[in-house]
Amino acid sequence: QRRICLIEPTERLSEQAANALLKTLEEPPGNALFLLLTNQADLLLPTIRSRCQHLRFGLLSAAAILELLQQQGYPPEQARQLASLAEGSISKALSLLEKPVSEQCTRILEILSQADSSQIATIFDSAATFASTREEAVEKLGYLISILRDMLLILSSQEYDLANRFAEQQLISEANRFLKQAMTELLELAL
Fold first, then answer.
1. Which of 47, 86, 160, 169 has a CB 3.0–4.6 Å from the CB of 93, allowing a cystine?
2. pTM of the model
């Protein structure tokens, strides 16, 4: 009978724990299977990486994340918004639950509303002022991308499926203030 040991996130192991794991990987028990999960393999000790078989998993579609969230009982509107911001990761979608997405997007829309319509790129400078860490800045950038996407959808089609439907009127107002080309350029910079 096999025993399975799941370690996640492996990159967060302390140096002492990583060295102990390395010893176990060098001489594993015959009935043991170790699954080391990470999205940052480069942070693992090279000796650990060299003793592992690597399997890469692709990103989930927004539709798959939406379905998973709805199966877990999340309301359709909340699940749709989380799925659109999750960047293919169910764990990211679930982590977004810790901070109200609507509040985060509303704050970015406030900053956007104060930006000069001819200088939309200044939104990056403004957004940086309310992000205290690199991780937080990346998170805010994700919200900005979802807002820009919604604004471009508003300008580009009669029918659209907004990620930030709760702010539809404000998105329409802001979308009409900026040139479509300027928003496209900003989105390209963000990506």
1. 86
2. 0.61
Helical residues (DSSP H) of the chain, grouped into ranges: 15-26, 46-50, 62-71, 76-85, 90-95, 101-114, 123-128, 134-156, 168-177, 180-190
Please state, in angstroms and rounded to a whole number, the distance separating the CA atoms of residues 29 and 11. 23
In b/e form, how buried is each residue of 24-34, taking b as 16+ CB within 10 angstroms? ebeeeeeeeeb
What DSSP character marks residue 129? T
Give 122-168 pLDDT, tens digit per residue: 666 665 666 778 777 777 788 888 888 888 889 888 787 788 888 88
Tokens of 69: 């969230």
Structure tokens at 48: 């650990």
Omega within 30 of 0 (cis) for the link into 9: yes
